[in-house]
Predict the 3D structure of the following.
Amino acid sequence: MEQGYSDKAYRWNRENYSSKRRFVDIWSFVLTLMFKIWRYNKSWSYPGGVTEAKQTARRKAQAIWIRNTLLDLGPTFIKVGQLFSTRADIFPGEYVEELAKLQDKVPAFSYEQVETIIEQELGKKIPELFQNFEPIPLAAASLGQVHKAVLHTGEAVVAKVQRPGLKKLFEIDLQILKGIARYFQNHPKWGRGRDWIGIYEECCRILWEEIDYLNEGRNADTFRRNFRGYDWVKVPRVYWRYTSPRVLTLEYLPGIKISQYEALEAAGIDRKVIARQGAQAYLMQLLNNGFFHADPHPGNIAVNPDGALIFYDFGMMGRIKSNIREGLMETLFGIAQKDGDRVVQSLIDLGAIAPVSDMGPVRRSVQYMLDNFMDKPFENQSVATISDDLYEIAYNQPFRFPATFTFVMRAFSTLEGVGKGLDPEFNFMEVAQPYAMQLMTNMNGSDSNSFLNELSRQAVQVSTTAFGLPRRLEDTLEKLERGDMRVRVRSIETERLLRRQSNIQLGMSYAVIISGFTLSATLLLVNHYVWLALLASLIAAVVSAILIRLLLRLDRYDRMY
């Protein structure tokens, strides 16, 4: 980190907050960011002239400033920044890269506050609930901190205690963020093609779910049940008697972080096996269970002495629709045939692309990817490269990827990075290949059966389309009659002529203004009103410059067309 936590950053670690102060702090950040973005495109703001290297350096500096400011603003903005680090389809790459570095390790709150919260939530004092409770936390994060403890029954546990006043802070911050989202939604430039209100609501849902420890406990139980038949995956057990919305008590399962490669080797654990098991565990979550860990960074995965994976932190989870198998098979068939329309429709059905009124740019982008990036064998592809290419195409396009899709892509990229750290020869796509082949053969049948199923599916689709066509035509005609549908016809040549005529009329107005002020300046000078004559001359000169610029623009348009 370029800076530590200042006294200003520590202001939010309290139970009572000033909504006015938060309003000033948050809007100051937003307005400063808007000014920096506006200045970025101004060539005069670059000493010695604008260059690509200078613009890159400025984007990097802005990204670092954003990350550090979000840390200063506290838990709400740390979490929002972490969520935005998945949205490479909306934000520039430098911003996403820096936001991905956001760590929510912050100063711990006092043991006295821990005692108060546990007594309020569980109705008993710490000595009545625990045989031993360590006052110094194992870790402190933006939403809470974790203490090691021992129950009276002798079981080692960890108690996760939420920060004091966090709910009130969220309510204040999210109300302010709602106003900011509305502002951006109505902005003539930044609101075009972006559903900022939808992104805000998505962030709200995820944040409220993450601070509800009962919800996290249910997620942990579900995740544990899904892997109960696999001894190489361990999930902490929830102690519900000692759990509430702000206190979560879990089984103590210590392990070596999956990113501590030397420690794993020293413990005699095969790093290659761990790399493959990490990828397999995630593919099973997606394809077998439809319930997956949405934040599998190295801090949330560890390895026990027996070489089993341990998963932590179940506040942020994702769910896949029940028809994921059929949808994925449809996508894979479309990719195999390089059929952009089919891929786009299957991604819409899967919820991987949010449909907009004009899907033309989406189809062209997908077809471009199919034609240019899908020539290499499946097992030689890289998740990070595919996602980077996808986000590069998606950035500044009039469509966006929903949270589920971006969480999956970020998780794949993270696991691929960790896997390569564990084993330099690791390839995530190679591990995923058997799952893809299983989907392509539709799980139960042979290749020939899949081919027949595909033919029958296409026959049904054609017949359904044919029978539904009259109804769709009738609906379209009814909408036209009611005025619910408008047809726009655009003539570039007519627009050019109208623009030229408008500019000529504007030029004539400028000429009249120049003539008037020049005549006024002459009369004033003759009558010895020198300063007033100079002022009139200055106005005439400024308007003349504007007129010359307009004439040059007209000349440029004529050469272009």
